[in-house]
Amino acid sequence: MSLGVVSGEVSGVLRDVARLGPYFEIGVEVAEPGDPAWLPFPGDDERLDALVGDYGERLGTAERRVAASLVFQALASRLWSPVVAAAARGIVPDLGGLRWRWAPGDAITLWLGEPAGWRVRSVEEAAGLVHPMVVDGRLRPLREAMGFVKLADGLVWGNAASALAGSLNVGPAEPGRVALVRELLRREPLAGTGTFGADGFVRNNCCLYYRVPGGGMCGDCGLAR
Given pLDDT bands bounded at 50, 70 and 90, which one contains residue 33? Predict the structure, then answer.
């Protein structure tokens, strides 16, 4: 049975995993009260539409579908990475109050004003909390908010799976983190999106990065096989 943990413990583990890299960062410091730049995640489609446009411009592609695909994958990475890394350390942070901030020229920033969460004792227990919180609570609403660009189911969940598996490429190969990622990838809608082989995870489809001028195929791209 998972147990609630206090803010200080959650803040501590989030600060710890943030050292792995920028995609593992969820801020837990006090933000400016009432700052309109911080929106609940995923927020409104206006900001997401601007983010897709900015991605397309920086990547040099006029294909909105390509830019939207890469935005979805980047945001999925920022959700999976810190949560899975924290869960592997025994604490699943609650993303109920997650907020985010972005403006052209700035990096995407995530923030939890009053961190809370649960202590877990097994991979199955962690997956039972992480999966619905990230997939149903964040990724499905994100896809709905990005409805201004049509993305196929296979592409969306392939991106989510790639983002999850890709989090293992950063930091030490902790057995708990590997086991949790594998367990999450066995659950719908991620099940069947790819497989683990001798060279790591390989997805069954493509994020469309190859359509970016000067781009190519990612290391886990199904098209490369």
Answer: low
